[in-house]
Inverse folding.
């Protein structure tokens, strides 16, 4: 009994030490919001303060009360759902009129025709309507995007004017012609798309009758619009080196697989080099990103934040147009792989981990 008591005291001391080890500085601290989640991929706040999140492998949309930690799982049916490798239920965005129409946009992986073979791995973007208990009324907006066990992209964001959806698709490396799909305008692999919220193709897209906005991408995992310039920024996974930070421009070619990183010239037409590459000797695996627009941290107004998977980092960048003025790492592998970052209705930063067991959500708030 005595040994058991001492063991319990040791466990308690260890847990207390871990809690005290949460990174912080003189101006902010990190708090645990929720534990025990199944790989949350996309976090968004509803106007009423609830957090909505997608769970990659279980394919469910959840509602989280950030005050109590209570969760509600909404019944979600995704036809021929494919929780395969890096695929599953991934990117999500809320409609600008969500408070009244409860519409969300979700990018997910599926088996074409329900047949579970490599040739039938696909991704699609659909809109849905949320009720208090379920996700229903699917409307397919863009279908038959190539999929694989990796490089599925699937980040979704609404344009600042709320008229368009921008979303990413990786090169689905092992599907068809492999990475070369990123350079093929007849393929939906390795692209960033722009469509109207009803799924129609805007007439001013750079390639006639095509949803493609930019090409030459390997696996874009983050999208965010600058509140200052209106430019669309993106993070992109490199092949073990040179993860990219990009500004996405109409009709531009970002080089993959011919070129990568900040190389100034490339043989592809309409080439656009990355703003920065991370780094030349390894990969940080950059994931989601967000511009800070809250009021809790006035000094961070309009700063760009992004998280990484392999190195478990949270970066803060101060920008001057497309130039990085200052860069700071706020979290450095303190929690393992980081998948998503968003700004809450309270102005705090919320970050999710990407663990195979017990994924978590943390928040950064002022002291």
């Amino acid at each position: 009994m005595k040994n058991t008591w001492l063991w319990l005291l040791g466990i308690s001391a260890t847990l207390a030490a871990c809690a005290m080890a949460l990174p912080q500085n003189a101006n902010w601290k990190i708090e645990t919001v929720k534990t025990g989640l199944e790989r949350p991929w996309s976090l968004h706040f509803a106007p009423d303060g609830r957090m909505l999140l997608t769970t990659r492998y279980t394919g469910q949309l959840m509602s989280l009360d950030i005050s109590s930690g209570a969760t509600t799982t909404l019944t979600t049916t995704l036809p021929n759902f494919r929780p395969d490798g890096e695929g599953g239920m991934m990117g999500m965005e809320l409609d600008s009129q969500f408070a009244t129409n409860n519409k969300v946009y979700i990018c997910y992986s599926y088996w074409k025709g329900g047949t579970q073979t490599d040739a039938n791995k696909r991704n699609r973007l659909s809109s849905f309507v949320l009720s208090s208990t379920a996700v229903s009324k699917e409307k397919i907006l863009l279908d038959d995007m190539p999929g694989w066990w990796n490089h599925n992209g699937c980040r979704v964001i609404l344009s600042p004017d709320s008229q368009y959806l921008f979303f990413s698709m990786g090169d689905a490396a092992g599907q068809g012609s492999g990475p070369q799909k990123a350079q093929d305008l007849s393929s939906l692999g390795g692209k960033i798309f722009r469509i109207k919220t009803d799924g129609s193709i805007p007439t001013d897209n750079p390639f006639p009758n095509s949803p493609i906005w930019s090409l030459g991408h390997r696996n874009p995992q983050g999208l965010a619009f600058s509140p200052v310039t209106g430019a669309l920024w993106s993070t992109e996974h490199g092949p073990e080196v040179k993860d990219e930070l990009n500004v996405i421009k109409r009709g531009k070619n970002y080089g993959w697989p011919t070129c990568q990183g900040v190389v100034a010239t490339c043989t592809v037409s309409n080439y656009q080099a990355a703003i920065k590459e991370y780094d030349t000797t390894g990969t940080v695996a950059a994931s989601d990103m967000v511009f800070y627009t809250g009021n809790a941290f006035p000094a961070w107004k309009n700063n760009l934040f992004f998280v990484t998977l392999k190195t478990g980092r949270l970066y803060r960048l101060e920008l001057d147009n497309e130039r990085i003025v200052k860069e700071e790492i706020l979290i450095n592998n303190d929690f393992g792989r980081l998948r998503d970052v968003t700004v809450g209705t309270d102005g705090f930063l919320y970050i999710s981990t990407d663990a195979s067991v017990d994924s978590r959500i943390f928040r950064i708030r002022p002291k």
About this structure: Residues 1-20 have pLDDT under 50 and may be disordered.
